[in-house]
Amino acid sequence: MIDLLMIIVFVLLVTVFMIAIGTYMYRIFFFTEAPFDRLFLPVERVIYRLSDIDEDASMNWKTYAASLVVTNFIMMALMYLVLRLQAYLPLNPAGIPNMPPALAYNTATSFITNTNWQAYSGEVAMSYLAQMLSIIYPMFTSAATGIVAAVAMVRGLTGKSPLIGNFFVDLVRTIIRLLLPLSFLVALILVAEGAVMTLKPYVAVTTFDGTVQTIPRGPVAAYESIKHIGTNGGGFFGANAAHPFENPSPITNLIHMLSMMLIPSSLIYMLGLVLKKKKQAWVLAGAVWFIFLSMFATVYISERLGVPALTAAGITGGNMEGKEVRFGIAASSLFTTVTTAATTGSVNNMHESLTPLGGFVPIAQMMLNNVFGGVGAGLMNILLYVLLAVFLTGLMIGRTPEIFGKKIETHEMKMMAIALLTHPFIILVPTALALALPGPVQSILNPGSHGLSEVLYAYDSGAANNGSAFAGLDADTVFYNTTIGTVMMLGRFISIIALLSLAGSMGGKVATEGNVVSLRTDTPFFGAIYVVVVLIIGALAFFPVLALGPIGEQLVMWFH
Fold first, then answer.
1. What are phi and psi of 230, to 5 degrees?
2. In angstroms, rounded to a whole number, what is the distance separating the alpha carbons of residues 494 and 160?
3. Integer Cα distance of 216 and 205 in angstroms
């Protein structure tokens, strides 16, 4: 009963915040005047002047996409330099050496793409300065990049012009008006609950048995707040959100989960306000909640039932391996579902230790990449599947498909195909390559189906810009650092560019009023179509490898 109450309260809280923040975001991006202008406008205009940004200029999709990509690549290069030179830079009280080239490339790529995959342990691999400049700083910019790309796509789909906004203005407004205030508020709550926040050096203490132990610490609360608000993931410590300095209490555990869901869900509500159809937002939110709750039920029931062999031996209580006793099975299962639904990558339990069906859930959600999804990227993928569902049903009734009064034609279908096919390609091809080469295979901890899942999870996590892992895989090698880094880059920018192109094309079309045979997208019937299309496309692309991995492992566990 307590577990059921927990999920009900969580859904209600997310819904309340979704309405509030979604309305606020609508005012930020789609109104000339926005809340708190007297506070934020002077700061923004100083930035515009210093950066020579024309706040009144709007861009077509090509200029918007080019600005987005070039800006991110410049930031990535600067992050790489900090990681390669951290031994010579200040704020390095532990004397941590420079990061090796392949690992620095992987890390810089990871955090600029909102993935936050970590092939290292933060407390022993990075100085305080590197944590702040190469980790916390891009947590803001990468999250803002995803949000503004989604906003630009919405402008194209719903607007009357091929101009979709100004990337630099959108980026500044997102950071100043949304991410910084929310992160500051969440950080204060985390500090109040016991999360560490300091720039003082690591502490050496003498334990009860006389051993000297070094206790790492640092600007953890600041890291944790934007990590979850921006669906970034990663961890200041290797243990991630299972570490008591990051996640000291059940209250902080709830704050972490709410933070991850906050912006992805709010963007859906914002879409409904832009369309002046709140019902559209509730239909899409209901569809993704259905998938989310189904996934949660799968991992929760699987972990609660535990391992059949242990149950037969009289060892009951569910599968607690790899879980913090502070949180237990229910909160760990919910955190697992949230962090991979919102493609955050933060973990409060070890996904490697999940039962096969429990491990299936995070893998499957990252493959779908639209069960709420990350900040911005999630809404873009939801809209991608909405367009696909409209196109397929349009073919069934013999009409040119339309959405929001605009026809879906050849160019839009090409861009949709690129975005849809890139995701499975960059997951399955590198996975097959890693399993075929003797060197990468040596990094696998467990044999058989679970070993396949370890490799599959790594590339799945990179492609979905998630960052969590089946940590049994030793990914800190030149091969994995290079290939996963490249997968993260492709998974992030190819789909954004393709969908911005689609948005620009749709923005240049004249909207017409729908007629009686046009498919409405704001009905429960369409919500059901959306869910079916998502599951069918996901199954067609990934079922064979899932059958060899977690599904096969579960069958062996049941029938061996």
1. -90, 15
2. 25
3. 11
Rounded to whole angstroms, how far apart are CA atoms 210 and 558?
A: 47
Nearest to 373 by CA among 69, 109, 146, 112: 146
Residue 363 belongs to some domain of the structure: no
d(CA 196, CA 128): 13
CA distances from 222 to 137, 266, 441 (A): 11, 22, 37
| Residue given tokens 């901890």 in the structure block | 445
Nearest to 336 by CA among 378, 376, 370, 303: 303
- Residue 21, in any domain of the structure: yes
Residue 474 lies in a domain: no
110 CB-contact burial (10 Å; exposed 0-12 / middle 13-18 / buried 19+)? buried
Q: Report how far residue 114's alpha carbon sits from residue 227's, in angstroms, rounded to the nearest whole number.
A: 9
H or E segment and range at residue 5: helix 2-30
Name the helix (H) or strand (E) containing 9. helix 2-30
Quickly state the pLDDT bin for 518 (edges 50, 70, 90). low
The token pair at 538 is: 């996901």
Alpha-carbon distance 290 to 367, whole Å? 17
Count CB-CB contacts under 10 A for residue 518.
18
Summary mean pLDDT of the chain: 92
Question: Which segments of 322-376 does DSSP mark as H helices, in order?
Answer: 328-341, 356-368
Instruction: Report H helices in 316-409.
Output: 328-341, 356-368, 377-396
Q: Which two tokens stand for residue 321?
A: 């391996």
Cα–Cα distance measured from residue 233 to residue 247, given in angstroms and rounded to the nearest whole number: 13
Token digits of residue 425? 């390609």
pTM for the full predicted model = 0.94
* Paired tokens of 46: 């100083």
Looking at the chain, the whole-number percentage of residues with pLDDT higher than 90 is: 76
The alpha carbon of 373 is separated from its chain's Cα centroid by a whole number of angstroms, namely: 6
What does the alpha-carbon distance between residue 163 and residue 152 come to, in Å, rounded to a whole number?
Answer: 9
Tell me whether strands 402-403 and 212-215 are parallel, antiparallel or unpaired.
unpaired
Q: Which amino acid is at 144?
A: A
Query: Count of domains in the chain?
Result: 1
Q: Which three-class secondary structure state does DSSP give residue 287? A: helix
Give tens-digit pLDDT for 354-396: 999 999 999 999 999 999 999 999 999 999 999 999 998 888 8
Q: Which residues contact 552 (CB under 8 A, 6 or more apart)?
A: 449
The count of residues in the chain is: 560
Q: Which domain holds residue 221?
A: 2-272
Residue range 24-57, pLDDT digits in tens: 999 999 987 888 999 999 999 999 999 999 999 9
- Calculate the dihedral angle through the C-alpha atoms of 141, 146, 147, 152, rounding to the nearest 10 degrees: 120
Which residues make Cβ contacts (< 8 Å) with residue 100, sequence separation at least 6?
none
Residues 351, 470 contacting (CB under 8 angstroms): yes
Q: Is 60 exposed, middle or buried (0-12, 13-18, 19+ CB in 10 A)?
A: middle
Q: Is the pLDDT of residue 194 over 70?
A: yes
In a domain, 188, yes or no: yes
